[in-house]
Design goal:
This protein has helices at 20-29, 46-52, 66-72, 82-87; strands at residues 2-9, 43-44, 53-61, 97-100, 103-107, 112-117. It has one domain (2-117). A 6-stranded mixed β-sheet has the order 2-6-5-4-1-3, with helices on both faces. The chain has 122 residues and is α+β, with helices and mostly antiparallel strands.
Length: 122
């Protein structure tokens, strides 16, 4: 058994419609059509990560792939976890992050990409 931590991109909690987290959410959604200089980041300092993301839950389980958590944290998947129901939060979405064994994985339109968080920057 191991631990997995789920972080949600704060686009859904911004007071204004087009704040920094909303812009980042949009970029992750249309990444395939962006120019190189418009691409969203694949690494964050601890400070940046805390600004854009909030911890939603830490769960215990035999998680080897972030896709397992995607299914458990998506309404309508028919594989929702009790932790998801208890948290009373939105479904996991593009731009959200799963931490497994100290590695961070960003939800993409299809699949997940590993990202860097911290990396000695503070």
């Amino acid at each position: 058994m191991g631990e997995a931590t789920i972080y949600y991109l704060n686009w859904d909690e911004e007071a204004e419609d087009h704040g920094p987290a909303s812009e980042l959410f949009h970029k992750y959604g249309v990444e395939s059509v962006l120019d190189e200089d418009e691409m969203p980041p694949s690494e964050f300092s601890e400070e940046e990560f805390e600004e854009f993301y909030r911890e939603v839950a830490t769960v215990e389980g035999d998680y080897e792939h972030p896709e397992q958590l995607w299914r458990e944290w998506n309404r309508g998947s028919r594989e929702e976890s009790q932790e998801f129901y208890d948290a009373e939060v939105r479904s996991m979405s593009v731009g959200d992050v799963v931490e497994l064994d100290g590695d961070y994985y960003l939800a993409k339109a299809i699949g997940f990409d590993e990202i860097e968080v911290g990396g000695g920057q503070e």
